Amino acid sequence: MAKSILTVDDSASIRQMVSFTLKGAGYDVTEAVDGQDGLDKAKSKTFDLIFTDQNMPRMDGLSLIKNLRALPQYRSTPVLMLTTEAGDAMKAQGRAAGATGWLVKPFDPAKLLEVVKKVIG
Amino acid sequence: MRLRQLILSLLIVLAVLAGLYLSSTASASLTLKHYLIVVAGFAALMLLQSRQSASEAEEIRSESTDQQLDSLERDFDALLNILNEEFSAQIQSTQNELDQLRAMLNDAIQKLIGSFTGMESTTRHQHDLVIQLTSQQASGHDPNVTNHGGQESITFEDFLQDTTQTLNMFVDNTIDSSKLGMELVTKMDEINLEMDKIRKILNEVEGIASQTNLLALNAAIEAARAGEAGRGFAVVADEVRKLSLRSSEFSNEIRSHMGDVTDSVSKAEDVIHKISSKDMNFALQSKQRVGDMVARVQDINATMKTVVQELAIATDKVEHDVHTAVTSMQFQDLASQLITHSMSRQQALQQILSGIVAIDTAHLDQQNRAAHWHYKLEEARALIERTRHNPVKQVNVDAGDIELF
Q1: What is the ipTM of this complex?
Q2: Is the Cβ pair A86, B333 closer than 8 Å?
């Protein structure tokens, strides 16, 4: 059965590009439009991997990670930040919140798939 | 005004000093003294008048300055209001244009993604079809492809090979049949020769029967001549003659049957000869044609293999281009975030200016005004601080860094 991945981003084009890349490699991809939508969808179904943007309306990426880590089913699930933010201070906040890794936009599809394979196989 | 007062003061002092001097001298006339006193008095009067005028002028000037200041303040307020309105209108227009730009970018990227994914899907489908076709043509069986009956499909090359094998078997059998036919013809010739021999033997048999008949006839004559003594011999001679006649009948009967056999053999020989010679030509031509076809198919297969190799290279290039396109098309997100950030900076500027105008037009006393200025300054600093962080540092659409914690 295909591994399931949730991609959370307020940019429709990024969601489409992530879905396009991951679906092409055989993964089952679900999209969420912001942190709150991502949290709701993560509660309704357990995902193997989550990608999230940082700057989003209603709930940002770091808050989403903190909320996810509070849920038993997401204590050890890989959550990768995919954002334009590239500052060390922000990365440190991400690491402290429980992020598994940090990818700076724009992403290269081949490298994105490499990371996904490394993280969930 | 001050110079006039100074001159008048100096004139009074001079008049008084001159008066005092003339008083001390007896020679001075009384009229001159009086004249000097009048001058001093007039000067003093003028001085007093001048001072009063100066005082009045000062008052008038002060009132005028206040009026000018009030006027300036009103003008300044009006100017600030105009500036605020104009600035707000400009910022609103800029924000509307940035919104328009963001919407256009969003619309363009959606169409671009739709067209791109459609193109990629079509290219992938095209590639799969070519691979399917070429693998069937060039590489033999494709276990993933089955026909409608669920059976494993066969390639065109397989079909040709099977056909060639079948045709070869057919040709070989035909050649064997032809050879057998020729052998049959030879055998038929041998049979004819044997038949001729039999005919000769039959001729001899007929000759013997004829002579036997003649001898039997002679014997019967001799028996009749012998009379009663030859009666028994005459019976034997008669039987011998009958046997010779029957022998001749049998011989004729055999000759007749042999004629039929000879005709049949001759006809069979003709038929076998025709069949064997006709099938041989047809089979040999078919074999040659199939051989040519197989050679052409092998050429096509060699071309197909080259095409497949070139297709693999083209596929790698398409994949690389797709990755570059996917990376580049993320420009819309970066541009959109930059536009949003730029708009938040403008909103902060507008908010700060509106705050300043509100203070100036509030008609507050100096103390309250200072307190408001301080508050607005702090507010402005906070606003500026909030908009200082730019979420997009990228200056191009090269792929960003990846870091796993």
Answers
A1: 0.86
A2: no
